[in-house]
Write a structure and sequence with these properties.
Number of strands: 13
Radius of gyration: 18 Å
Order of helices and strands: HHHHHEEEEEEEEEEEEEH
Shape: globular
Number of domains: 1
Helix content: 10-25%
Largest sheet: 13 strands, antiparallel
Number of helices: 6
Strand content: 35-45%
CATH topology: outer membrane lipoprotein receptor (LolB), chain A
Length: 303
């Protein structure tokens, strides 16, 4: 009898995702896992506003004051360079929510590290449910502003490299694109400050970023609300060709873990598809010595 691949793998191979949209494979994060470890949530948090507006130390107050005189490029650099630890290990959940409110939950383990050259590494391994268990995703920042991404499908025992033309497609049929799982270099975009506003009680500066000529991106423009006391993106609107956002990203819970501001629960909403993806951190530890040998294609295929 011919072996039958799990449905989720068949969707990836055919390139078919939700509704009538077509995808190559599963397509972050984040820049969640990628701008700050990963996004997710701890059960029992007392609510987004209370957590997000939690006590700030003297350093946070200094950072907030410094925000008064920043240029758009300087603010983008602070977001890019903010402290996310030397390494991290997290257990997390990805929850897919369709337009009827139906929910599907996936569990995953995420390891990250920063090399001595300031380049980031991330490895995501899905562990449940069975139809996606073992699927892995490896992100390697390279010199010169490039990022290499690999996807491993255990049912095929095959690793595929994600090429540039595929980075505007969804990650594991979620509302995060592969591009969302990269830390894009500051100098590839034009940045401007367009105002200030609060998000769940957190004072933010509004940063608008557009790709420079010749830079490939799934987005025409991204508008971000950056917390003045921690340089965390609390909200983002992603625009393609239209005047209304294609997708909206929101941090629902943000708190300090091991002294590092961590997005503990985030939501990406695809406005056109009426579909949402929630990422929750169930547990996370920083600076515990995750080695660079963890972030190889050999390790990716070791399931």
């Amino acid at each position: 009898m011919k072996h039958q691949l799990p449905a989720v793998c068949r969707e990836m191979i055919r390139g078919r995702g939700r509704g009538s949209m077509f995808y190559w494979v599963m397509a972050a994060v984040v820049a969640v896992v990628f701008a700050a470890g990963i996004a997710g949530a701890a059960a029992g948090d007392a609510g987004a506003a209370a957590n997000n507006a939690g006590a700030a130390g003297a350093g946070d107050a200094d950072a907030a004051a410094a925000g008064d005189n920043l240029t758009g490029e300087q603010l983008a650099r602070l977001v890019y360079d903010r402290d996310v630890g030397r390494d991290s290990h997290a257990e997390a959940a990805m929850i897919l929510i369709d337009h009827r409110g139906g929910r599907r939950e996936r569990l995953m383990i995420v390891d990250t590290m920063m090399t001595g050259d300031g380049l980031r590494r991330a490895l995501i391994r899905f562990t449940e449910p069975p139809d996606i268990a073992g699927t892995g995703f490896l992100t390697l920042e390279e010199g010169g502003g490039e990022t290499t991404q690999y996807l491993y499908l255990p049912a095929l025992r095959r690793t595929r490299r994600i090429v540039t033309s595929q980075k505007g497609r969804p990650f594991v049929n979620s509302d995060f694109f592969y591009e969302d799982l990269e830390r894009r270099p500051v100098e590839q975009f034009d940045h401007r400050l367009s105002g200030a506003a609060a998000v769940d009680g957190v004072a933010c500066l509004i940063l608008e970023s557009t790709p420079k000529s010749g830079v490939k991106s799934a987005y025409r423009m991204v508008r971000r609300w950056v917390a003045r006391d921690r340089w965390v993106i609390m909200r983002a609107e992603h625009f393609d060709r239209g005047e209304k956002p294609l997708k909206t990203y929101t941090v629902e819970t943000c708190r300090r873990v091991d002294g590092i501001w961590t997005e503990m629960r985030v939501r990406m909403r695809h406005e056109k598809d009426d579909h949402e993806t929630v990422l929750e951190i169930r547990s996370i530890v920083y600076n515990r010595g995750v080695g660079e040998d963890r972030f190889t294609t050999r390790e990716l295929e070791s399931w």
